[in-house]
Fold this sequence. Notes:
Chain A is mainly alpha-helical. Helices cover 71% and strands 3% of the residues of chain A. Chain A is built from ten helices and two strands; from the N terminus they run ααββαααααααα. Chain A has a two-stranded antiparallel ribbon with strand order 1-2. In chain A, helix 3 packs parallel to helix 10 and helix 4 runs antiparallel to helix 5. Chain A is elongated, with a radius of gyration of 21 Å. The model of chain A has no long low-confidence stretch (mean pLDDT 91). The interface between A and B is large, with 87 and 87 residues. Chain A binds a DNA duplex through helix 2.
Amino acid sequence: MRLAELSARSGVSTATIKFYLREGLLHPGRRVTATQADYDEGHLRRLRLVRALIQVGRIPVSSAREVIAALQDERMDLHQRLGTATWALPHGPEPDETDQATEAARRTADALMERLGWHRDNACDRPSAAPAYGMLVTAIAALSRLGYPCDVEHLEPYARAAERIAVSDLDLVERCGTPDEQVEAAVALTVLYEPVLLSLRRLAEAEESRRRFDGK
Amino acid sequence: MRLAELSARSGVSTATIKFYLREGLLHPGRRVTATQADYDEGHLRRLRLVRALIQVGRIPVSSAREVIAALQDERMDLHQRLGTATWALPHGPEPDETDQATEAARRTADALMERLGWHRDNACDRPSAAPAYGMLVTAIAALSRLGYPCDVEHLEPYARAAERIAVSDLDLVERCGTPDEQVEAAVALTVLYEPVLLSLRRLAEAEESRRRFDGK
DNA sequence: CTCGTTGGAGAGTGTCACTATCCTAAATAG
DNA sequence: CTATTTAGGATAGTGACACTCTCCAACGAG
Lengths: 216, 216
């Protein structure tokens, strides 16, 4: 398959494919002559994944590169590769340590994880989800700065929902064949179910709001 | 309160506050002299909300302006204002109608909403969550293009979790005093709980991945 | 042989969220 | 009452990001 055909089959312009090749998001094709290269189904699949991560999952090109690299790193086991990939995902601004709301938020987050039996070290050492922990602290701090209650009791239902969702996610992952496919699936599902989840919540809120507030 | 004090109390630079004033995210202060203006607690509160929406909720300045405007629009009821605000939230690329995966995704989304008893018109007419519906379709299409199963059966647990979360959200909203406070709360909670939810899911996935895959 | 096409490289584009500079007028120190 | 600092407003500039355009030499179909 030539560049033009890869472009036609993926719906991505040749200019953008060249850009991804340059940025290392797509491995180079097999060089046929000095001015031609051959691409295969693997390239098509990878390209679709990259596109989905960037366009639907809204992750920056640089993060996508790191995520892709983690997927292929043979030196790590499944859990480590997934952790490294998750680590590379965008996660907003770091908590502002000069703010006392952050300190309180950190205590709330710790108490929540304690109650759920989640491992803090899971969240603090590589490879795992420390950025997600920072993201949680930042968000809790912002909410409490605005005066909204955001303590362990309020957060627990969200965390329980997250637990159930994670179980669904990994059930889906385990149904994939090889470990390589499983890591790819885990990353793709982590990223691409985020908009699914957010849009479902917004739709559910609209529904619930209609039920409670319509006409008020 | 002068600009400098507003800046000090909010932690936002005077340059940025001036920028927000220009962009209409913050109503002008009361003019004292030709070169001085006076700001009150309302400005501080608004500024904190804007900052949280932009930095934590990652919504663009232009969307934030629309959201803020919807909050204050006295012509609409609670449900309508919330719908208008939600409508202004970022929601990724529109579904690609030239793609047949989109068509299938739309059928899946419709079937899911049917099964949950959610109202499609709720999602399609203003004021409500049509962008969220488009976002859902786009994400489902991307997943199925990558070959991941994404039918009503797989989606239902996510939707059920979303329903429970929406109930928690609106319980919190109803605990706020005046209708004006309630709309603001609804928007703030919609936007600011998104990172909470996403980070909790990532943490839960890390936990579940450790349980299942560590060492594999 | 010729003329459109291909792959590669570098520069350019549009958007976004600020940020730096400038200017005038007002407050304040001496 | 002058001199110096500071405030507010307008305009232009910055840096990151995700492409997108332009150019060029080498293929290759007719």
